[in-house]
Amino acid sequence: MGTVVTAPGATAPTTFTMNVTGAGSTTILYTVKVSTATTLYEAGTGSPSPSLSGILAGDEVWVYGAQDGAHTVDATSVRVLPADGSYGGMV
Questions:
Q1: What is the pLDDT of residues 17-41, one digit of tens each?
Q2: Contact 60/18 with Cβ under 8 angstroms?
Q3: How does DSSP assign 17-77, residue by residue?
Q4: How far is CA 50 from CA 39, 47, 55, 61, 72, in A?
């Protein structure tokens, strides 16, 4: 799970960055590559997100995909977590 630092562009392919807290509370900045094949979800609903413009700086996200380099991920899916912190009901 990470916090979006810079929001993605409005259409894929695009990228966004997110901070991930690692061991010892160190923060690592990752670049997330979003392709036209990446699926975006709203957590708790299982519904695809309507657009990339729904991902904003400060949002909490889970990113799934393959690491491509030291701090880059080719995302297969991105889940945007609810702003109220209620992560239950993930589908």
A1: 999 998 788 999 999 999 999 999 8
A2: no
A3: EEEEE-GGG-EEEEEEEEEEEEEEEETTT-PBPS-GGG--TT-EEEEEEEE-STTEEEEEE
A4: 10, 9, 10, 15, 24
Looking at the domain covering 2-80, what would its CATH class be? mainly beta
The answer to pTM > 0.90 is: no
Q: How far is CA 44 from CA 27, 53, 61, 67, 81, in A?
A: 26, 19, 12, 25, 8
25-47 b/e with 16+ CB inside 10 Å = b? eeeeebbbbbeeebebbbbbeee
Structure tokens at 59: 């949002």
The total of other beta-carbon atoms located within 10 Å of residue 59's CB is: 18
